[in-house]
Write a structure and sequence with these properties.
The chain is mainly alpha-helical and 314 residues long. 75% of the residues lie in helices and 3% in strands. The protein contains twelve helices and three strands; from the N terminus they run αβααβααααβααααα. It has helices at residues 2-7, 24-51, 58-85, 94-127, 132-135, 138-150, 152-163, 181-185, 193-226, 231-259, 268-292, 295-313, and strands spanning 11-14, 91-93, 173-174. Helix 4 (94-127) packs antiparallel against helix 6 (138-150). It starts with a helix and ends with a helix.
Length: 314
């Protein structure tokens, strides 16, 4: 009976945000604008930090990887969501749903670990500035980035294989705008308590453990900054960390509120709004709050854009 119930589900229906037809086109235009800004901003970060020698440092190497992750993370969710806003029915195949969830977990877990490596980079730069070139070598940067990208593989594989091996014997309507695990889990008629324990364990390992590393790094950074005698030095040290702190707060705050409680008491609309913040809004804000608030990155970006505009006029 378990196999029969499982195999009868060939597709899911994504409910989306609202069922009002009059809101679909405005929502499509809003999210299309956000999507365009996200792609443009993050691609610009990649190009500028790749070809400008002034930004050839470990911090900007990590930022380039973060921008790449944000693009991939956005591509998993937003294009399908945009198409669904123009359709009366919002179907997604069983395999398509599994694939979307897999890459969502993959890039999400990778971003958690990458944010931790960025905090470590700031810790070494501020707390051990004399040893920074010896610690954050080119090889070390590639190893940290590679480990961050690979970290998404085990959590995505285990979570998705487990969820889609469960029997689905309820209506196949996923009350979300993408195949998120808590929403899909509600369609299963099996006992999911064991999976919830595994999900909580994965959340601790891939969300809270990197967050604790970030927290420890910033405690050491704050202590070091407070011990600095120069006010200008304190301001400069803090300015290199402020954007990363804002990004960490936005990302971890919303993600942990969703995945620490796969079957929380929050209303479906509340869960959707929380999900929008880390799947759509945060990737758009990354170029602004991390790169453009940095004086060095802002000036270099302006120079690069100026050269581009000047060459086009010529």
């Amino acid at each position: 009976m378990r196999i029969m119930n499982h195999t009868t589900v060939t597709e899911f229906i994504l409910v989306g945000f609202f069922n009002h037809p009059n809101l679909q086109v405005p929502l499509f235009l809003i999210f299309l604008g956000i999507y365009t800004i996200t792609l443009t901003g993050n691609v610009l970060i990649i190009l500028v930090t790749s070809f400008d020698s002034a930004l050839n440092s470990p911090m900007y190497f990590s930022l380039r990887n973060l921008a790449s992750l944000e693009i991939c993370f956005n591509l998993v969710i937003v294009p399908k969501m945009l198409v669904n806003h123009l359709m009366e029915n919002k179907p997604i195949s069983f395999v398509g749903c599994a694939a979307q969830m897999y890459f969502f977990f993959f890039f999400g877990a990778s971003e958690c670990c990458l944010l931790a490596t960025m905090a470590y980079d700031r810790y070494v730069a501020i707390c051990n500035p004399l040893h920074y070139p010896d610690i954050m070598t080119r090889r070390a940067c590639f190893q940290l980035a590679g480990a961050s990208w690979f970290s998404g593989f085990p959590v995505a594989t285990v979570q998705v294989m487990w969820i889609f091996s469960l029997p689905f014997c309820r209506p196949n309507q996923v009350n979300h705008f993408f195949c998120d695990s808590p929403a899909v889990l509600e369609l299963s008629c099996a006992d999911t308590s064991l999976f919830e324990i595994e999900s909580l364990t994965a959340t601790v390992l891939f969300i809270m453990f990197p967050f604790l590393l970030i927290l420890v790094s910033y405690v050491r950074i704050i202590i070091t900054i407070l011990r600095m005698s120069s006010e200008e030095g304190r301001h400069k040290a803090f300015s290199t960390c402020s954007s990363h702190l804002v990004l960490v707060t936005l990302f971890y705050g919303t993600v942990s509120s969703t995945y620490f409680r796969p079957k929380s008491s929050n209303s479906p609309n509340t869960k959707k709004l929380i999900s929008v913040s880390y799947t759509v809004i945060t990737p758009m804000l990354t170029p602004i709050i991390y790169s453009l608030r940095n004086k060095e990155g802002k000036s270099t970006l302006g120079i690069t854009l100026g050269r581009k505009l000047f060459s086009e006029k010529m």
